Amino acid sequence: MIKIMATGGVLDPGAMGLEQHFSDAEMKGIVDAAHAMHLKVAAHAHGARGILAATNAGVDSIEHGTFLDAAGAQAMKAHGTYYSATLMAFSGVQGLMGTGKLPRNPKPRLARRSTSGARG
Ligand SMILES: [Zn+2]
Q1: Span from the CA of 45 to the centroid of ligand 1 (angstroms)
Q2: Range of the domain at 28
Q3: How far is Cα 51 from Cα 68, in angstroms, rounded to an integer?
Q4: 48 with 98: CB under 8 angstroms?
Q5: pLDDT per residue over 34-44, tens digit each?
Q6: Ligand 1 center–CA 44 separation, angstroms
Q7: What is the CATH number of the domain that holds 107?
């Protein structure tokens, strides 16, 4: 299997945020190439648009899915996409906040999650 960064993550130092990092065509190309080699594709995906785009591109699983919305969930159901919520990853990051062990301060993105009504 391969895992692609369909979106950024809460600890990423980059400025691209939590949304889609590949075009729709790029993600479809990655998925088609991987499937042609009999590889499953897991998508690291936090933002709703990235989750939806990765799902529509045909990835086999959504990892994290922090801001999964109804449209994304419906698309995942229609495509038979697996969901790995990795709730312990969020809990682990919360436990490291304020310890100086994180590469940068993830508080703004984590705070956004905790006030968005997202599950978990
Ligand atoms: Zn990930």
Answers
A1: 7
A2: 2-115
A3: 7
A4: no
A5: 999 999 999 99
A6: 4
A7: 3.20.20.140
